[in-house]
Amino acid sequence: MELRDYIRILHKNWVIILVLTVAGGVAGAAYSFLQDPKYQSTTQLYVSVRSEGAATGDLVQGTTFARQIVASYVDVVNTALVLDPVIQELGLDMTAAQLSTQVSASAPLNTVMIDITATDTDPEQAAAIADATAASLTSAVQTTLEQPATPDAASPVQVTTVQPAVVPTEPSSPNALLNIALGTLLGLAIGIGIGVLRTVLDTRVRTLHDIEQLTTAPLLGGIAYDPSAQKRPLIVHADPRSPRAESFRSLRTNLQFLNIEGGPRSFVVSSAGPGEGKSTTTANLAIALAETGARVALVDGDLRLPRVADYMGIEGGVGLTDVLIGRVELADALQKWGRGQLFVLTSGPVPPNPSELLGSVAMDHVLAALTEHFDYVLIDAPPLLLVTDAAVLSKKTRGVILVAASGKTNKHDLTGAIRSLETAGGQLLGLVVTMLPTRGPDSYGYGAYTYGSTHDADGTKTTSGKQRKSAKARKRTKTPA
Question: Which H or E element spans position 380?
Answer without folding.
Answer: strand 376-380
